Amino acid sequence: MKCKRLISAILSAAMALPMGAGCLTAGAEPGDGTDCVKEYGDVNDDGAISIADLVMFGKWLLGKGEMTAPEAADMNGDRKTDVFDFILLRRRFVETLPEEVLFRVTDLCSGMEAKKVEGLEPDKEFSLSQTGVALDLLRHTADGSSNVLISPYSVVQALAMTANGAKGDTLSEMENVLGGMPIDKLNKYLYTQRTSQPDSEDCKLLTANSIWTRNAPSRIKVNADFLQTNMDYYDADFYVAPFDEFTVKAVNKWVEKNTDGMIKKLTDKLDPENVMLLINAVTFDAKWQRPYTKDNVIEDADFTAADGSAQKADYLVSTESYFLKDENATGIMKPYKGGKYAFAALLPDKDVSLGDYIEDLTPERLGKVLSNPDTSGAYTMIPKFSYDYSNELKEILTDMGMGAAFSDAADFSGMNDVDNPLFISSVMHKTFIQLDEEGTRAAAVTEVVMSDKAMLRAENEVVLNRPFLYCIVDTETNIPVFIGTLTSIK
Question: Which terminal Cβ of the chain has fewer Cβ within 10 Å, N or C?
Answer without folding.
Answer: C
